[in-house]
Here is the input.
Amino acid sequence: MPILKLNPMPKQFIDPYGRVLSYLRLSVTDRCNFRCYYCMPEEGVNFVDRKQLLSYEELEFLLDVFAEYGVNKVRITGGEPFVRRGLVDFLSRISQLKGLSEIAITSNGSLSFAQIDALADMGIRSINISLDSLDKKRFFEITRRDKFDEVYASIMYMIGKGFEVKLNAVIADGKNTQDILPFIELTKHHPVSVRFLEEMPFNGTGTFEVPTWNHVVIKGHILNHYPTMQRLTSEKSSTSVNYQIPGYQGTFGIIASYSRTFCGTCNRLRLSATGELRTCLYGAPALNLRDLLRSGASRDEVVRELILAVAKKEKDGFEAEAIQAQTPKKSMSFLGG
Ligand code: SF4
Here is the structure.
């Protein structure tokens, strides 16, 4: 009698809707050297004490567990990740981790050329830069920092070194709608991908107005000026709907981050710098991995808690938001974007 040999089930995080969660957005700090109005107030931000942050050793252990269960892409975010000491060494160590095929970074661009060279040397070449204006004065009004020249120089340096650079611009009425067309023109001469995002309710102030410049309005505005714009095919779980102007080197995209039109293909998990695991950006933390680790939990116990958390992942960002409607929303610098 032949023996039936069953292939072991692949170790994956699959949510109740059949979505495979293979992408972790990992915040390494809630601190930032900028004060963007859509992320945090200018004053009075209570950053967490450093002892409350996951240590690099704890982060490496957790990343190893995530990678064992099919998480093959990690995006390092913050706050501003490069304000945390030892980040480059940490990146160099995790770039050796088995199973992690892609390490990407989101930064405000205030990183040095030396750090950029170090990233290139370890093969990390995908970087998203938050840049909401190409006008120095508006940049200052939005970030409350006079750092435009440095950020722009870093961006051009990365493009020159062949990095895959994406620029994320949060578009808001009365702030930077006049930057949309100059950003499109930037893609004429540079192989860069500019993405226009809707504003999200994570500004750390507890007040928020539904964005008037949503993905439909942004697209209409661009189409008015570029009727020949062409839609591009994007990755299945991409949040960005991408386009290109014929003959332009770069591309641009629109991310409906408030309208949440892309939840059906969500493949994301989020881990805050203090260990809060979220199965949705708009949701409450499902568990705290820092506390679990520091309570002496074994690897198996960590895996079990992760699987239980994934089993409760919300259908979409609206369901997630509704579940915790009474809880004040945290700042984006804490959530990690
Ligand atoms: S809003 Fe939540 S469910 Fe939707 S794509 Fe974002 S993280 Fe995923």
Summary: The mean pLDDT is 95. Residues 260, 262-263, 266, 268, 280-282, 316-317, 320 surround iron/sulfur cluster (CB under 6 Å).
